[in-house]
Amino acid sequence: MNYSNDDRIVMLLDAGGTNFVFSAIQKGEEIVKPIITPSNGDNLDLCLKTIIEGFNKVKSELPLAPSAISFAFPGPADYPNGIIGDLKNLPAFRGGVPLGPILENEFKIPVFINNDGDLFAYGEALSGILPEINEELENNGQNRRYKNLIGITIGTGFGAGVVRNNELFLGDNSMGAEVWILSNRYDSESFAENTISTEAIKRSYIEYTGKENNLMPKDIYDIAMGNKEGDQEQAKLAFEEFGKNIGEILGNLISLFDSVIVIGGGIAGANELYMPAIFKELNKNFRVGEDEAPRTVQKVFNYDIPHERQEFLSDNSKDIVIPTTGKTIKYDSNPRLVIATSKVGASKAISIGAYTYALQHLKK
Q1: pTM listed for this prediction
Q2: Are the CB atoms for 55 and 22 separated by under 8 Å?
Q3: Is residue 3 one of the residues assigned to a domain?
Q4: Residue 338: which of 94, 138, 190, 136 has the closest Cα?
Q5: Among 62, 97, 120, which residue terminates a domain?
Q6: Which of 144, 146, 212, 282 has its CA 20 to 30 Å from the CA of residue 204?
């Protein structure tokens, strides 16, 4: 979706548990240098003051009055009404705080708040991987197009969003696609996020090596790649375990939503270590009586690998005859999907999603 000729300005906030990052977008481009402040997420009065001051600083640098405020928060909340509830990373909001109405009263413009996983998916669907895929299909002379997307974020936590026909799916309680709490097939006593997060990689490496350490996932990645001293094989196993658990969740999401999947977030750059395990999981067969059935009905390709991307883009359709008419119709018996790593990055995709969401919901 192209907003290159739209003069309306949207002020943005990337709300993390440690820092808040304020900015603004006009015509699809960031127009102020991001302002970074501590979140003060354990002190409500100070946190609200920080948010208002942050937006005022951005506003003071704008060439025109802003049309809206739009931003992401990390976790489930009553987003349609702008009420932030019990967030793990921002404890000051426990019990429910009407942040949207507070900011609307302060700035006298509409305020839109959404989950960060939802806005990541929205940004990728409108201005990221989905339009790229459809453009590639068009360039390859293909008629098929993809209209649905699942965006997955992997980092401190495990989040997701679903976009259907360019519309963000929020659910009746604005809690759609809360994948972090899905069941865990490989650890029945815990939920998905327990094995799909930065802590999961750190914990796995400690368990595999049998030695306590203070290594971060980037350190373990460097060990796995042979760029840092440590147990390389065990580091690889930690990422393999991570990928196996992602693959189990993605198999379920693919079956439910039949959508392209894009992965972003702080650990997405380690895709060469965890992506093979994802596809090993997806390519498993299930037992059906004495027979076997594939894990997914669709053939899923790794869009990051050139030869797989080309196979996904290729035309395997054939002409079949429509009886009694003498006419034919194209038929492709091989339904296909892809999993891709975000090229724009989670932070930018979330910003694009927040900006676009606001413009689509504003009255012109």
Answers
A1: 0.92
A2: yes
A3: no
A4: 136
A5: 120
A6: 282
